[in-house]
Amino acid sequence: MSEQKPRNYVGNGKQAGEYYVNISLKKSQLEPHYYEYNGEQYVRLTIGKLKEENQWGKTHSVWVNDYESENKSEATKAPVSAGDGLPF
């Protein structure tokens, strides 16, 4: 098992209904993590539920998903279908 890298937290959120979470993100912390794909800029994020509500009532954390496949050729493959053009 590999060591887990420290997470780069960029925001948080609060459960707002049965099926959704409202989140707030810090633009200044997101900008360094943008990457280009097919002429568009993207940033990959992960949203995780906190074990318990924090002191400000937040129920979720948001961090940059900087996972890179160990198989570099797999990471650079184009999407199989036209789909919506997103790389994930």
How would you describe the overall organization of this protein?
With 88 residues, the protein is mainly β. The protein has a domain at 9-67. 9% of the residues lie in helices and 32% in strands. It is globular.
Task: Please outline what is shown here.
The protein has about 90 residues and is mainly beta. Helix content is about 10%, strand content about 30%.
Order of helices and strands: EEHEEEEH
Strand coverage percent: 25-35%
Structural class: mainly beta
Largest sheet: 4 strands, antiparallel
Query: Given the structure, what is the number of helices?
Result: 2
Please tally the β strands and state the result: 6
Radius of gyration: 16 Å
Low-confidence stretches: 72-82
Shape: globular
The span between the termini is 24 Å
Strand order of the largest sheet: 2-1-6-5
Mean pLDDT: 81
Amount of helix = under 10%
Which short descriptors sum up this protein?
mainly beta, 88 residues, globular, 4-stranded antiparallel sheet, single chain, 9% helix
